[in-house]
Design goal:
mainly beta, Diaminopimelate Epimerase, Chain A, domain 1, 5-stranded mixed beta sheet, 12% helix, DAP_epimerase_AS, lysine biosynthesis, Diaminopimelate epimerase, amino-acid biosynthesis
């Protein structure tokens, strides 16, 4: 175990991450270390850890090394491993470019993930990422307290349950301090649960909604990129649109989901690096 580890702190719409540079895969990353780093009182604090490792040097990324140089090794704040993180991949791309580890060409920057290779188009304030095509595949429900809300399951490379609020139930009134109850037979590996309500018309987009999210392994977060993708896909589907865009307002800002005329799905939003330093690993014990 290394005594001191370099890190950078970054966020996308306040979904925040501890970024660990480990190009050659030498860091012994464990669930306990991840949880300690993400502890908001005893550690650095974050919704998860992004380890920056060359795809060829990581057993789960080696098969993608021909398509992408870098693999995003993403861990939730409780130390569990996740397939994908939409805000995380934008922050990851920002880190690569800011540290001269990759260039942001017009064709985009490929990033290997457990859900496949994503392509990030890096702009001054916004990063757009071509995501996996979301797949709506089942009806289900989520229960918060005494409230049970119908929803639909959406596969975005990781599992989501999108639940629209009705009958006067307001998003702000939900208690998401504990995980919603879901169908464990359908979501055996857990699920990210998004609750959604309509927002006012917004110029330039076809749909405009607000969401809150409870992420498996992290609890309620200020934002979830793949969650916004799932919500946007459901919003466009309900509007009968095969292509279009949806603005999704999260607690930490706004994300825009677009399905273009070629059927490609894009997630756009800010990605910010806020500081760097070294952490004493022994002090986290």
């Amino acid at each position: 175990m290394m005594d001191r580890v370099f890190f950078t702190k970054g966020h996308g719409t306040a979904n925040d991450f501890v970024i660990l540079p480990d190009p050659d895969g030498e860091l012994e990353l464990t669930p306990a270390l991840v949880a300690a780093l993400c502890d908001r009182r005893r550690g650095i604090g974050g919704d998860g850890v992004l380890r920056v490792v060359r795809a060829a040097k990581h057993p789960e990324g080696a098969g993608q090394a021909g398509e992408a140089e870098w693999f995003m090794d993403y861990w939730n704040s409780d130390g569990s491993i996740a397939e994908m993180c939409g805000n995380g991949v934008r922050v990851f791309a920002r880190y690569l470019v800011a540290n001269d580890l990759a260039t942001a060409g017009p064709a985009g920057l490929p990033v290997a993930t457990r859900a496949g290779v994503m392509v990030a188009v890096v702009e001054a304030d916004t990063i757009r990422v071509r995501m996996s095509t979301p797949r709506v595949y089942a009806a289900s429900t989520a229960t918060v307290g005494a409230l049970t809300v119908p929803g639909v399951a959406v596969d975005c490379g990781n599992p989501h349950l999108v639940c629209g609020l009705h009958d006067g139930v307001r998003l702000a009134g939900l208690d998401l301090s504990t995980a919603p109850l879901v169908d464990r037979a359908l979501f055996g590996a857990g699920v990210n649960v998004e609750f959604v309500e309509p927002a006012g018309d917004l110029p330039g987009v076809d749909r405009h909604v607000r969401m809150r999210v409870h992420e498996r392994g992290s609890g309620e977060t200020m934002s979830c990129g793949t969650g916004a993708l799932a919500v946007g896909a459901v919003a466009l589907r309900e509007a009968g649109l095969s292509a279009g865009s949806a603005a999704v307002d999260v607690l930490g800002g706004r994300l825009v989901i677009t399905c273009d005329e070629h059927g490609a799905w894009w997630l756009a939003g800010p990605a910010v690096l806020v500081g760097s330093g070294r952490v004493d690993v022994a002090a986290l014990a």
